[in-house]
Each structure stands twice: as C-alpha cells, then as structure tokens.
Task: inverse folding
C-alpha cells in the first residue's frame, strides 16, 4: 500500500517534470530556428561558402514540426491522464527529429569539423534528464554511430566534404590529409566527451531520483503520522469526556477503526473469574460474528497468549491458526488481525483487536501505534472506573452518614427545646455549637450527594444553545435579597446583546450559583459583590464574579478547582 502511494506520487512528479521540459523544449526550438536562419544568412554575407538553400530548408523543416509539437503539446496539456507514457513518447519524438535535423546541418556545415557538432551533447543531456538512463545511452550510441558513419562515408567518397570554416586551415589539412588516422583523433575525443556526459548526467539523475523517492516516502510517512496523531488526539479528547464506560469503549473502537484504516475493531473484557472473554464493544463486525457470546480462554490459545502480555499479529489467517470459532472468522471476511492486551501496569482488563480484510495489512509501525492507542484506552477505562467507584462510594457513604447525623440533630433539638428537662445557659451554648457543627457536616454531605448525582447525570448530558442572560437574570432577585440581609452591596452588570452558548442550562445555573453564593458567604458585612457578564468576542462570553472578601492565598490557588477544596 505504501509502495503504491510512492509510485503514484513519483509518477505525478515526473509527469509534471516531463510536461514542463517538453514545453520548454518547444519554446527553445523557436530560438534555435531564428538563430539557424540568421546565422546562415549572416555567414553567407560574410563570404563563407554555405549551402544557404539547403540550410534554410532544414530550418523551415524544424519550424514546421515545432508547430506540430506545439499543437500536440496543448492537446496533452488538456488531458487529465496521470500516465507518463504519452509524454515520454512525445520527448522521444522531439529528440529524434532534432537529431535528424541537427546532423543534416552538421553535414552541410563541415561534418566532423562543424561548429554545430557540440550541440549533440545538449540532446544527450536532455535525454538523461527526462528519460531513462538506457534511453540516454541509446541516443549517445546513435550520435556516435551516425557521426562515425558520416566520417567513413566522406573518407570513402560516398559523401562529399562540406568544410566551411577549416577549408584553408592547417587543422583541416592535418585531419583529412592523414585519412582515418587523423579523423580518429577528433572522433575518439568526441566519443569520450559524449560517454562522459552520458555517464555524469545519468549518475546524477539516478541519485536525484533516489533522493526524490526517499523524500516522497518520508512525505508519505509524515502525512500518515500527522493524520494518525490528529485522529488519536480527537479520540483521546472524546473518550476523556465520557463518563460512562460503555460510551467510552464504543468511542474507542469507532476511532481505532478509522485511525488504523481497517474493517473493524473490538474490545473483549475479562470476566471476574478471569476465565472468559466477552465482547464489551465492537465496530464494523456483524451480529452473526458476535452471536457466539463469550470466549473460553482455555479453548483459545491465541487469546490466552495475548492476555499474558504478548502482542499478536496474524498476517494471513489460515487453518493452522487455532481459534475457538475459526469458521466465523473466515465467514466474516477477516484476513489479518492485530491484538494487544488492555492493561494498566500489571492489571489486565481484556483484549483490544483490529481486523483487516487484507492479508499482511499490518506492519511494525502499525503495531507500535496501536500499542499507544491501546495503552491510552486502557488508562481512560481505568480512570473512569476509578471515578465511577469514587462516585458510588461518596453516595453510599453520604447516605450512611446522613441517617445517624439526623438522629443526633433530633436529639440535640429535644435537649435545646427542654423537652427532656430544663438546661442552663452554658448547656444551651454547647448545644448551639454542636448544632452549628452538625449543619456544616450536613452541608458537606449534601455536596457529596449532589456531586455524585451530577457525575451520574453527566453520562447522558447533551450540550445545547443556552441564553446566558436568561440564566443569570433569573438568579438576581434571590441573591440580591441574600446580600441585603447580610448588609452587602450586590451589583449585576450584564452587557447585552449576548450570543447563545453551548451548555447544559442546569449545570450553568449551578456554576453561577456556587460562585455567587461563595462570594456572599465569605464577604464580611458592608462588603461588595460584583457580577459581570459581557461578550468577549464572537465566540466567547466572559463571566466574572468579584468580591471584597478574604480571598485565597497564592499558595492555594493551584488547588482552586480540586474537589472538596475550601480556601
């Protein structure tokens, strides 16, 4: 799967490179035609012996096929194909026709002594950049073969000599006067130059393409890692908000299936006796697959091995892999699977599995990443279970304490009202102090019960649009009276209009009530409590409660949002 991605990206990259270069080649050819025509006629007027008519025809031939190439190139440009083959053929056609035209010009401008001979190297370099190394060496062989044939044909008088620059020069007399021996010196020098150019350009190209493939692979891995980490963040954020174990597991299996790109996922939990596994949550699996119910660990060696702490990867499920219900796995279309133990430190909760319909779907990186997913899921499950246990204990303890506390309060009330006989002033003072302490303890018990209830309600809480002005405005009469009774100045500053916010209206009411009631409670007489509500931005609303009370010391600010903390 990764290889296919790299090949596709590489193909698109080199298709773009081919496309850019072939159009650049067409533009450059317009210049070559102009230079050829201008150079031919300038040389003619300078008195050089040139076949002007033939060179002009060759230049016009180049102009003609370049117009055809321009039309064909525009047609390729509008084609949505991702194939590189059409552009490769297009490049071969251009290079081949250019070499034909160039060698015709080389022949009519001096053959092996032509100043145009050097331009053949340009096409070798271009073939090395755009095409395969084999194509580069093929064109080098063609150039050398044609040049060698031209030299032999001229040497044996099959073609006439066409010297233009060196016809009276000592170099010309040395080369052509000594036959093949003299010509071989220039030819061998040119062979070396061509082969070295071909070798250098293909070596550089192979190195660059290798680096390009590595960069594409690295880019894919970075994209994949970024996508997985983003998905993992979303998963952790969502399961962190869950206050119900079933909802948490359902969220984990759903996200794990999407993150790992697989057919399905399951969480199997150990029962209390640690002898059976039962499906706690699944995603992407059929009801038929789940209908078998519990899995006996003794009858499933693979599950037993996983519970011992070993990750288990099956690249291809075959008969030799022993499952309790192997026929159900094949019927479900599961070809490979990855399973890890759900554990926190040494405590094993169950097994987390992902299933793929492709054989050998999972690689080492998948195992490492899924290990992280499994560990985070197990930790979230354990933390939630701890919170649920804590909530259950708080509610249970509060109920157990409330009954004897009410009994004590009733007895003190009998004593205080002298139903059991007269009491003196000192005894009355002691009873009042006891009642005050019992009231404080009663408030704490009520807080415990309310906290437990809110935690239970949070499991089914859904956020919706709430008008914050309406919520706070309903509280103004209540707390204005409380502040007035205590001798406090109470100010409400609500700046309208306010946008609606996503919240639970009951929880928002409790939040604001707690803040205001605490401000009133801990502010001494003649003090001041100020409540403001204002629009901070298009997305934020700011609620601020301030007072002139005793405040909280800097050392205790870090504990401000801890449960049961009192400053």
Result:
């Amino acid at each position: 799967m990764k290889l296919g991605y790299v090949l596709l990206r590489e193909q698109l990259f080199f298709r773009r490179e081919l496309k850019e270069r072939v159009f650049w080649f067409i533009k450059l050819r317009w210049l070559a035609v102009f230079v050829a025509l201008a150079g031919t006629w300038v040389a003619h007027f300078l008195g050089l012996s040139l076949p002007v008519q033939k060179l002009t025809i060759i230049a016009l031939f180049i102009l003609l096929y370049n117009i055809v190439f321009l039309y064909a190139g525009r047609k390729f440009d509008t084609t949505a194909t991702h194939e590189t083959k059409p552009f490769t053929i297009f490049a071969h056609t251009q290079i081949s026709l250019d070499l034909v035209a160039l060698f015709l010009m080389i022949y009519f401008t001096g053959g092996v002594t032509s100043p145009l001979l050097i331009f053949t190297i340009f096409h070798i370099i271009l073939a090395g950049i755009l095409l395969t190394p084999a194509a580069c060496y093929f064109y080098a062989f063609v150039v050398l073969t044609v040049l060698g044939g031209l030299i032999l044909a001229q040497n044996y008088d099959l073609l006439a000599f066409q010297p233009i620059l060196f016809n009276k020069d000592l170099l010309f007399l040395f080369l052509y006067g000594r036959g093949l021996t003299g010509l071989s010196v220039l030819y061998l020098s040119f062979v070396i130059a061509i082969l070295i150019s071909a070798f250098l350009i293909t070596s550089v190209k192979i190195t660059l393409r290798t680096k390009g493939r590595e960069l594409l692979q690295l880019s894919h891995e970075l994209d994949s890692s970024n996508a997985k980490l983003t998905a993992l963040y979303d998963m952790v954020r969502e399961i962190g908000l869950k206050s119900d174990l079933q909802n948490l597991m359902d969220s984990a299996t759903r996200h794990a299936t999407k993150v790992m790109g697989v057919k399905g996922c399951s969480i199997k939990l150990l029962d209390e006796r640690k002898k059976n596994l039962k499906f706690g949550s699944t995603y992407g699996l059929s009801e038929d697959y789940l209908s078998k119910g519990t899995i006996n660990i003794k009858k499933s060696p693979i599950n037993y091995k996983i519970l011992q702490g070993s990750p288990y990867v099956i690249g291809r499920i075959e008969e030799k892999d022993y499952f309790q219900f192997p026929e159900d796995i094949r019927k479900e279309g599961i070809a490979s699977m990855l399973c890890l133990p759900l554990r926190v430190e040494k405590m094993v909760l169950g097994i987390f599995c992902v299933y793929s319909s492709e054989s050998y779907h999972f690689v080492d990186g998948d195992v490492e990443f899924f290990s992280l997913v499994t560990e985070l899921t197990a930790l979230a499950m354990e933390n939630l279970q701890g919170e649920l246990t804590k909530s259950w204990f708080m509610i249970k303890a509060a109920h157990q304490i409330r009954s004897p506390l009410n009994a004590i309060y009733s007895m003190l009330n009998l004593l205080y009202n002298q139903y059991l006989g007269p009491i003196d002033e000192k005894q009355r003072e002691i009873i009042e102090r006891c009642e005050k302490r019992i009231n404080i303890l009663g408030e704490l018990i009520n807080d415990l019960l309310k906290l437990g209830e809110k935690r239970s309600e949070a499991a089914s809480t859904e956020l919706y649009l709430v008008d914050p002005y309406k919520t706070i405005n309903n509280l103004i009469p209540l707390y204005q009276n409380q502040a007035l009774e205590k001798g406090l100045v109470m100010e409400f500053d609500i700046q309208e209009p306010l946008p609606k916010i996503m919240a639970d209206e009951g929880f928002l009411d409790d939040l604001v009530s707690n803040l205001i009631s605490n401000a009133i409670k801990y502010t001494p007489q003649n003090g001041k409590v100020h409540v403001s509500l204002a629009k901070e931005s298009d997305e934020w609303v700011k609620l601020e409660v301030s007072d002139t009370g005793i405040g909280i010391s800097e050392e205790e600010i870090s504990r401000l949002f801890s449960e049961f903390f009192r400053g």
